[in-house]
Records
---
Amino acid sequence: MTKNTMLIANDWKDYILLDSGDGEKLEQWNTIEGGLVVARPDPQVLWPKEKPELWNSADGTYIRREGGGHWNWKDIAPTGRTLSYKNLKFLIKPTDFKHMGLFPEQAVNWDWMMELIHTSKRPIKILNLFAYTGAATVACLSASAEVCHVDASKGMTTWAKQNVALNGLEDKPVRYIVDDVLKFVKREIKRGMKYDAIIMDPPPFGRGAQGEVWKIEKMLYPLTLELTKLLSDQPLFFLINSYAGSCFSPIVLQNVLNSALGSKGKTESHELCLSIKNSANLLPTGVCARWTTK
């Protein structure tokens, strides 16, 4: 059984997408330390700004240049700040590659995973791959799951540990692995390790700690197929995310899961979006596919 829909992360109180247009988005992050408004590039934004008068309120603007970019700040560049989503807290801060360390549209997936874990009423062991700053790790730990967090970046893994500590979850069962995902998965298979749920958030392109090259169009399905060997006898879910830059349809990810997992459960795929304040437009941010036995 398959299902294809659009998911909009509408439950945010402390994150607001104020406007978008001309290749940029204007965001307000209402952190515990105070409000922060930033303008960042977004290649999906092909329409004009609807509220151009708001853009002067930006505290910082990311200027893209060939081969990189930089931030321009009205005042001193902000350091780490704390953003809340329901009972979860996350450390955000501007990075040299325009990100803030959190993707607000993923809130719909955090809610989905936490609900599945809660309603399973059994211990759940989760493998979180390409785990970045650990938002999904925090969500799953808060729902009382055990998590193995894997990312090739030592810096992102340190950030994830800070997010876990920020939520008072550092004593929960979590294992951090800084390694190339493909190498780690092969070792786990040899060890006979099993997981009840798998989260995968691969970039379109990347390099591992030892210079390993990742290309999503060539490696996504083979990796997914290998990961089926790590699923327990009572699997709960398998989630694949892909961001707007990959240019994948949600159905591509749906087909990957269907092909790898067969008819053992049900699959749904979604386009992920954010609402724009006082606008009929939505901002497309990526796609995901979810497989579950529930």
---
Amino acid sequence: MQLFTGAGVALVTPFTENGVDFDSYGRLIDFQIENGTDALIVCGTTGEPSTMTAAEKQAVIEFAINRADHRVPVIASTGGNNTAEVIRASRAAEEAGADGLLIVTPYYNKATQNGLIAHYTAVAESVNLPIIIYNVPGRTGLNMLPATLEKLSHIDNIVGMKEASGNMAQVMEMIRLCQGRISLYSGEDGLILPTMAAGGQGVISVVSNILPRDTHELTAAVFRGDLETARKIQYALNPIIDLLFCEVNPIPVKAALGLMGMINPRLRLPLTDMEPAHLAALKAAMEHYGMQL
């Protein structure tokens, strides 16, 4: 079972002063689908779920499912560090009609490798949806080892891994050990090309929020064996990618969408507006890329 191949967008959540800006969110979804995005990932890190209530997250998931209307898969991010709550949220997303789940490794309280196996097994047994594991040590303080993923890959509805360790040797070992039982997606926009060259099936992307067509085309070029085009796109994107991560995600990407006139780049505390010097550099890089601001 494969949820998608290519470029999935880790979609931002636009806010008003009082809640979620669903008008802007709908426009973002349409913009993504019209420009070739292969999947929508909602309420992931880029969507600021840590500052959203459970009711807000469920409303965003339901809205995305309805707005996408089966045009592309909608993958709901329901991970957390409380297994019982992850199961509750995952079941709610399944009932709402999500196509799959993205579930981050538990953070703060963390877990042993055996604990990770027990956590994901419990969640997988509680839903019928396909699950993508999300490994992001820089956020969670723990790393899922390749041998652990290999064990989890034998569970039927664990079908993917978003790998954001930045460790290409680990990426390659995961792909080698799992022998095609899961789809591995780059969780680092700067490593889309090498991850796919190693056997990855695409990316769950931040830069795709602002450049969906180009991100999709990068992955499509790899699939058709046109590495020259893939390299050209990756190298052109990299200066913008670097600036999208010069401050904590999603501060820069929301600022970029604001420059494009797509959303009000409002953030929720503890995140704050992008530093003026960084914003000026991001604007200059986007203009240099050829974006109309």
---
Amino acid sequence: MSSILVTGASGMIGKIVVASLLSKKHKVFGTDSKPSDLIGVDPNFEFTQTEITNKAAITQLLESNRIEFLVHLANTADNDFDAFISDTEMKRSKLTDKFLYDAAVKVGCKSITILSTTQVYGIQKGRDPIRETCPEKGVSNYTNMKLDSEKALMKATKKSSTIPVIARLAPIYTAEFTQNLHQRVFDAKENVAYIYKEGEYGFSFCNLYNLVDFINGIINIPSGRYEGVYNIADTRMITAAEIVEYEKKKYRIGAVIQKNPNIVLSVNKGQMRTDYRYFDPTFTFYNWNIDNTKARRISTFRWNLSNTK
């Protein structure tokens, strides 16, 4: 049994991570600004409702409970954020990261795992799979915030025995949360789904349960030392045609039109900078193939669109 602190424990990602860790019989301490559905469900779960910026409360949790692993999910993505990332959120994240990482190192945490994003790679024009060594070309406030968080973690752990783990997460989905999938085949302005040609092109996404398995792998590793940056994405890309078929079965889209892939669209760079959910169809045929080979040394990445739950 390990002692684990999970920030953002009430979020869409956090509550699944916490439930999985509890099923492995770990002692889990959760914190979030929102209440947790898991309070009272398992005696190995203790929850503190507080803002992640509450330095005194978070530091007390780390110091009082001999925390071995920190899983930092607060200030992450999807349902836990508004779509628009302002300078306020960026400043809040930077201040939080500094005290949190320093405090975790001070109490002797074995490892710190944080969520970053594959958006830091920006638009890659080549056809080789996007590996962890590819240049970072992200241009949004969200990617800048995540890169700052990555740098802060590496700096805080540089002269310590604490292992830094950076999970660069592709857009996530579950059977019911398909917003990221839906966005790639839906024109909000026209209020209609669309595909180019037969929809044979694809994008990298991450089934939420592949992320959960990866986090369990980091915590349960029997020996060795896994550290650094990992791409967390499904092993195979999901095609536009597969997304359309899946969403139709769930009655989440109706008619689908075919668009001309040669049409020239204007890129809204201002919206790209502030709205981390924004996807411009102009970039559909660029390279979205995220390589998860390094992360598959830790977990199997067995989940996909056909067996998600």
---
Amino acid sequence: MWLADTWNDYEVIDCSKGEKLERWGKYLLVRPDPQILWDTPRDAAGWSHPNARYHRSSKGGGQWEFFDLPDQWSIRYRELTFNLKPFSFKHTGLFPEQAANWDWFGKLIRDTGRPVRILNLFAYTGGATLAAAAAGANVTHVDASKGMVGWARENAKASGLEQAPIRWIVDDCMKFAERELRRGNHYDGIIMDPPSYGRGPKGEIWKIEDAIHPLVQSCARLLSDRPLFFLINSYTTGLAPSVLAYLLSLEVAKKHGGSVAADELGLPVRSTGLILPCGASGRWSSE
């Protein structure tokens, strides 16, 4: 398992009975997590006095209950600053377990000793984009949500990366990749974090089981002659890490060689020393 265990401003304090108690900077949040199937005593003090709690509805979705939480606040990871706020379906605008991937490809970018171009698809609020830019890459950031791209730009400004070489694109990711192929553009690294289900800016429907392989095929053709890495993230239940490894082996390693690895991402739990699984990643690198 790949661990995001170098945070200072974030931690999972405890988890039990389908919920996790987290510290985001100086604020404590309680959020549901379907992976937490155990029923253990909740001894950590924060359980009884969180700043906010997300209640899941039996009919789907849910809502926040606020006690003492600002509309927006920020946390840092290394040189990066991320603006956070609670919004629909329990999210805060950041997936802290992805720091394990940021560190991995950040080192590859820094160590390569040459300019690199990175394409980040389904780029959300820009965690991977900023990590790549901070490492020295030229990044193209693509997401179908105008609001998410705007949020990512705010994070770039907060991180001192407002003038970094980042292209901000609001577009359907598959259509953008196809247009880039027609334009003859290429990238040294590709990052993608496809949702299980989604809609593009013009109502395009995305279903991961139907679309992931064609997208990987197209993006593999976007790789340069000297590619550095290819990263696929997934939070889709039932999509095993080995599936991501197979896609990368089939579409990337078969042509470019290198190495493929896949595993779960995890966050350490302070109270128990256990690891909370948080999705899966597949990694290809030229090394």
